[in-house]
Specification:
This protein is mainly α and 85 residues long. The chain has 3 helices and no strands.
Amino acid sequence: MPEKMRDEHSGDEKISGTVPARGSYHCFPKKMLARKQEELRASIKELEDSISYIGWKQNFYDEVLSGKRPYVSNLIRTAEKTKNN
């Protein structure tokens, strides 16, 4: 431990003041942690959904490139669409 930290933390620190009643003090951090945990779970779900979509899209393009699935675009004209119109 660096000397400066040793001087600041001599080990004789004391808690000053009164400690709040058990229920009121511990309730806030517990609720805060529960809320943060829920936010993280929602974030993880969003990431998992994004990963699943990327996997689906990669599979789609693999099927198009292998000829297993025909490529159809609503944005550009393809030879097949031109023949039908």
